[in-house]
């Protein structure tokens, strides 16, 4: 296969040189050019026709987010954000992903040379995955859904605080998943079955991610705390850099926060969540894998299917990166496939079906 052509956009000459060395070390990548600001980048994109753009946020003459929005509107290309701002400002990163960026890598604020070198494998993998990503013209950032009083989470929470959760939905995602999960949760009603989620995201980003999802959903979306009960109308994500497991406690499920080693190179890992759901909830659960790079979650989804849970994967056409869904489908061949816009309704239908008649 021809090498992936990359344009590096960053105002730091040091970072441009380091990224050029890192990416050029892989035979499958060709750095065709660099640019110190978005206006230069615009001209080089026209001239060099890159397959992937790496983009900083804070730059002279035009900030990276404005450039990204214009690029997705006028000439959509796979973009990987590489910026110190993404480490300090999770909201900035999430906004970049909502504008159409495929993925991101946070460069360290200090000791940039040493830090970026330690991220070399991650940067190379994400750029190569981005080359095969499906990128569409951007509609502007989605506004948070207005939750009317009749859809508020307060009433279901009070009414069901001591009830047993009959159904449990487990979702895993990676590259492209922050927006895919938002799209699913914003279609969920306030009294939907409990949802547990693992998204590959670094420590320090999880709280902002949960808060953003909460603004876009009628459900109550939160970072899980160790030992808390899993309740209908709520969606739970692991705190940054920790695994989320589900355990059975009598007639209910509880969250278990796990600081164990990375699994499949990830922490949190989808496989950790799915294996625990298979054991704790069995046929009372529903499992879904959305867009993502790699194969994390495939073995866990198989364990869920073997425990009697229906399984669902996002289809290739609507996945930004079809690595995780494709890997899951190879292991669980009878998993249902669905376009992103139909996943919420399918999850609700599967969760509403009597598990004894599935």
Characterization of the model:
- Helix content is 37%, strand content 20%.
- It has 358 residues and is of the alpha/beta class.
- It has two domains: 4-130, Rossmann fold (3-Layer(aba) Sandwich), CATH 3.40.50.2300; 153-357, Methylesterase CheB, C-terminal domain (Rossmann fold, 3-Layer(aba) Sandwich).
- The strands form three sheets. Strands 8-9-7-6-12-13-14 form a seven-stranded parallel sheet, sandwiched between helices. It has a five-stranded parallel sheet with strand order 2-1-3-4-5, sandwiched between helices. Strands 10-11 form a two-stranded antiparallel ribbon.
- Strand 1, helix 1 (13-24) and strand 2 form a beta-alpha-beta unit.
- Helix 11 (270-280) packs parallel to helix 12 (298-306) and helix 12 packs parallel to helix 13.
- The longest helix has 13 residues, at 340-352.
- The chain is elongated and about 60 Å long.
- Mean pLDDT is 87; it is low at 140-165.
State the total count of DSSP E strands: 14
Class based on secondary structure composition and strand pairing: alpha/beta
Individual helix count:
14
How many domain modules? 2
CATH uppermost class of the largest domain: Alpha Beta
Looking at the structure, the CATH topology of the largest domain is Rossmann fold
| CATH architecture identity of the largest domain | 3-Layer(aba) Sandwich
Corresponding CATH superfamily of the largest domain: Methylesterase CheB, C-terminal domain
Helical amount among residues, as a percent range?
25-40%
Main sheet strand line-up: 8-9-7-6-12-13-14
Mean pLDDT across all amino acids = 87
Whole-angstrom Rg = 20 Å
Q: Which blocks of ≥5 consecutive residues have pLDDT under 50?
A: 140-165
Spell the H/E element sequence: EHEHEHEHHEHHHEHEHEEEEHEHEHEH
Active site: 174, 200, 296
Family: Belongs to the CheB family.
Pfam family, one: CheB_methylest
Organism: Pseudoxanthomonas dokdonensis
